[in-house]
């Protein structure tokens, strides 16, 4: 076994920052009260949640009452889309999204289609970018929500969300941004983004798994998707995950405080990976060359299966991803790459390397030493 894992899959999840764990521990041990209880222990829990909400306000440029804590990024997406769709049925049954969204958005729209909603899936260009003018053209008087991601989780392309939001605002159609992959690295100023709803997930920015954040602009009417107590101002029933909420907000705060130091280093590592890997014959960069997340290097290699690359890397203690979904034993090429117009054969050879704050130049060196040989070997086996 290799001595240490070289972890290059931060878009899948990130390790918990030890400082975040420290902030969470009291809420697992001494401060275990239920935030709905009126005695001191309960009030402490409620104070911790209130204080967490206050800490988000500066980063999102919003009011504390506009923040709802959920159980994950997928739940935030579901609540935003189903909650808005079901609450707006008097207006219409039309949704707009793109084909490169995460399944938390795509499958939610498909679910709603079973109940009479219609979805327009806007085209994307070869970099995976939505044209804001297409959003404007697709909006009808029946449209109840536009949902477009901030940055794509497979190829890292950043969408022109502020411009899309401007168009939605002018046409009085609510706009949801799935910012799960952008959280911790791109600006989350909801006013500048013209967002009405915005989803985040703590485990993508060194926070705990199982905690999501949903920004809901004041005045948006949302039908809750969990029935029960009146927690989160009636938007999300269930006893609050106090430790998780404290951890999520601590992680978000640290991410933005440290971004000026962390980001240039990660961009340099990413660019070195991309430049070197593109010298391998039959390799292509996927996603936008400049408008991309700082930490995502995504490529396709002709004549190899991405999964075979992953298995070979794993033997050497390197964790990476293809970005594609594995369904019932067969490995389908990524819906994102196909929507961007890549041929199926090329899309099969995808590799996504996503950097984090603990990665070093030595990690990148190791990757660059081993990957060309792995690809050559796999191509040899095929041909
Ligand atoms: N949206 C995007 C863009 C994602 O990348 C992910 C997770 O990979 C999700 C939503 C779902 O988040 P979670 O894993 O917290 O449910």
Structural commentary:
The chain has 383 residues and is α/β, with parallel strands linked by helices. The longest helix has 36 residues, at 242-277. It has helices spanning 18-24, 40-60, 73-87, 103-113, 132-138, 161-170, 190-193, 242-277, 306-315, 335-339, 344-347, 361-382, and strands spanning 6-7, 67-70, 94-97, 118-121, 143-149, 175-178, 197-201, 212-216, 283-285, 296-301, 318-319, 326-327, 330-331, 350-354. The strands form four sheets. It has a seven-stranded mixed β-sheet, with helices on both faces. It has a three-stranded antiparallel β-sheet with strand order 9-10-14. It is globular. The structure holds pyridoxal-5'-phosphate. The site of pyridoxal-5'-phosphate has 13 residues, from helix 3.
Mean pLDDT equals 96
Bound molecules: pyridoxal-5'-phosphate
Distance between the termini: 30 Å
Helix content: 25-40%
Number of helices: 12
Which class best fits the helix and strand makeup?
A: alpha/beta
The major pleated sheet works out as: 7 strands, mixed
User: What are the secondary-structure elements, in order, as H or E?
Assistant: EHHEHEHEHEHEHEEHEEHEEEHHEH
- Main sheet: which strands, in order across? 2-8-7-6-5-3-4
Based on DSSP secondary structure assignment, what is the total number of beta strands?
14
Q: Give the overall form.
A: globular
Beta fraction? 5-15%
Low-confidence stretches: none
- Round the Cα radius of gyration to an integer and report it: 21 Å
Oligomer status: single chain
């Amino acid at each position: 076994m290799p001595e240490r894992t070289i972890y290059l899959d931060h878009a899948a999840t990130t390790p918990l920052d030890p400082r975040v764990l420290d902030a969470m521990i009291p809420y697992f041990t001494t401060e275990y009260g239920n935030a709905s209880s009126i005695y001191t222990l309960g009030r402490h829990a409620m104070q911790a949640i209130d204080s967490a909400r206050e800490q988000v306000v500066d980063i999102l440029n919003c009011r504390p009452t506009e923040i709802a804590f959920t159980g994950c990024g997928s739940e935030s997406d579901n609540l935003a889309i189903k909650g808005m769709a079901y609450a707006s049925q008097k207006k219409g049954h039309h949704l707009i999204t793109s084909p490169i969204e995460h399944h938390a958005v795509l499958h939610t729209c498909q679910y709603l289609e079973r109940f009479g909603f219609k979805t327009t899936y806007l085209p994307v260009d070869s970099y995976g970018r939505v044209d804001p003018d297409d959003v404007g053209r697709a909006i009808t008087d029946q449209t109840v929500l536009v949902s477009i991601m901030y940055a794509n989780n497979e190829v890292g392309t950043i969408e022109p969300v502020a411009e899309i939001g401007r168009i939605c605002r002018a046409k009085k159609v609510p706009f949801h941004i799935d910012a799960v992959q952008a959280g911790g690295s791109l600006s989350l100023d909801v006013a500048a983004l013209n967002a009405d709803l915005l989803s985040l997930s703590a485990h993508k920015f060194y926070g705990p798994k199982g905690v999501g954040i949903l920004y809901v602009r004041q005045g948006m009417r949302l039908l809750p998707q969990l029935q029960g107590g009146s927690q989160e101002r009636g938007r999300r029933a269930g006893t609050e995950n106090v430790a998780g909420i404290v951890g999520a907000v601590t992680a978000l705060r640290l991410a933005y405080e440290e971004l000026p130091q962390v980001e240039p280093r990660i961009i340099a590592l990413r660019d070195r990976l991309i430049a070197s890997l593109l010298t391998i014959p039959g390799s292509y960069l996927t996603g936008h060359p400049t408008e991309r997340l700082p930490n995502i290097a995504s490529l396709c290699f002709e004549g190899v299966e991405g999964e075979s690359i992953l298995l070979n890397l794993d033997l050497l203690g390197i964790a990476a991803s293809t970005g594609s979904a594995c369904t019932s034993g067969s490995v389908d090429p990524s819906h994102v790459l196909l929507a961007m117009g890549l041929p199926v054969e090329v899309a099969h050879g995808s590799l996504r390397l996503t950097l984090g704050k603990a990665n070093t130049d030595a990690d990148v060196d190791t990757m660059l030493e081993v990957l060309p040989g792995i690809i050559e070997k796999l191509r040899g086996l095929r041909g």
